[in-house]
Amino acid sequence: MDFSFSAADEAFRARARGWLAERLDDAGPFADLRTAQGFDPDRRRAWERELGSGGWIGLGWPAEPASAGSESEAEAASEPGSEPEVTPLSRQVVWSEEYARAAGPAPLGIVGEQLLAPTLIRHGTDDQRRRFLPPIASGEEIWCQGYSEPGAGSDLAAVRTTGTRSPDGSWRVTGQKTWTSLSQWADWCFVLARTEPGSLRHHGLSLLLLPMDQPGRIEVRPIRQLDGDSEFSEVFFDGAEAAAEHVLGEVGDGWRVAMDLLSFERGVGMLARQIGYARELDGVIALARASGAVHDPVLRERLTRQWAELHVMRCNALRTLGTAEPGTAAVAKLVWGGWHQRLGELSLQVQGAAAALGRGPHDAGTLRLTQSQHRMLFSRADTIYGGSDQIQRNLIAERVLGLPRESRSPS
Question: What family is this protein classified in (predicted)?
Answer without folding.
Answer: Belongs to the acyl-CoA dehydrogenase family.
